[in-house]
């Protein structure tokens, strides 16, 4: 009886192992070679943007707001494509609060050919400032790449912003955003204000 029980146990373990291997073979990896893919993508984007920025005002390469001019590595910068130029005249400060419309995506992955949307302020499929209220947050509370962009935008500007993972969520990721992710934001700055001051937008919210 003991020998029969032993053979049955070995058989069941073997079946379980085969089943497990089969399931693993069918598993789809959402973010294969993610670090290498993101680094290659952003480095190439940065190189093209640096070449184009001198003659095309709709392309910008902006160094992280707190870094000295001696820092010139691709990961020290964000890349911007200007979609619309606003009529504002004031640049927000790092200590300011911003009113922002935005949508954040990752680079294309296995089941998201356009990149997975991980956050957005829009309540409809397409951005419409008349039907979507901007979100309000302190510029100092967002990732370095996003904070850098906001401090260079004027009210009404709409930018497509590419942030390397070093200025985003880094090698650890955050809340479902994989490590080493380049962040792609479609951002419109609706307004901003200094601490202990108000704007028309702020008064409406209060």
TrEMBL record:
The keyword Isomerase applies. Residues 95-193 form the PPIase FKBP-type domain. InterPro entries: FKBP-type_PPIase, PPIase_dom_sf, PPIase_FKBP_dom. This is Peptidyl-prolyl cis-trans isomerase. It holds the Pfam family FKBP_C. PROSITE patterns: FKBP_PPIASE, PROKAR_LIPOPROTEIN. GO terms for molecular function: peptidyl-prolyl cis-trans isomerase activity. Signal peptide: none annotated. It catalyses: [protein]-peptidylproline (omega=180) = [protein]-peptidylproline (omega=0). The keyword Isomerase applies. Belongs to the FKBP-type PPIase family. Keywords: Isomerase, Rotamase. It comes from Segatella maculosa OT 289. Its EC number is 5.2.1.8.
């Amino acid at each position: 009886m003991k020998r029969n029980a032993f053979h049955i146990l070995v058989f069941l373990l073997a079946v379980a192992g085969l089943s497990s291997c089969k399931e693993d073979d069918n598993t789809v990896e959402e973010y294969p070679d993610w670090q290498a893919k993101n680094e290659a993508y952003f480095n190439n984007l940065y190189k093209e943007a640096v070449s184009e920025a001198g003659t095309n005002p709709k392309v910008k390469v902006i160094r992280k707001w707190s870094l000295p001019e001696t820092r010139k590595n691709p990961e020290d910068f964000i890349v911007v494509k200007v979609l619309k130029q606003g009529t504002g005249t004031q640049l927000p400060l790092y200590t300011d609060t911003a009113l922002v419309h935005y949508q954040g995506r990752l680079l294309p992955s296995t089941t998201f050919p356009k990149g997975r949307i991980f956050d957005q302020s829009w309540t409809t499929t397409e951005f419409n400032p008349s039907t979507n209220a901007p979100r309000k947050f302190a510029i100092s509370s967002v990732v370095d790449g996003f904070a850098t962009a906001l401090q260079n935008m004027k009210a009404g500007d709409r930018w497509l912003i590419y942030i390397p993972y070093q200025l985003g969520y880094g090698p650890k990721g955050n809340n479902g955003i994989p490590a080493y992710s380049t962040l792609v934001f479609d951002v419109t700055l609706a307004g901003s204000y200094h601490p202990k001051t108000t704007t028309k937008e702020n008064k409406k919210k209060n």
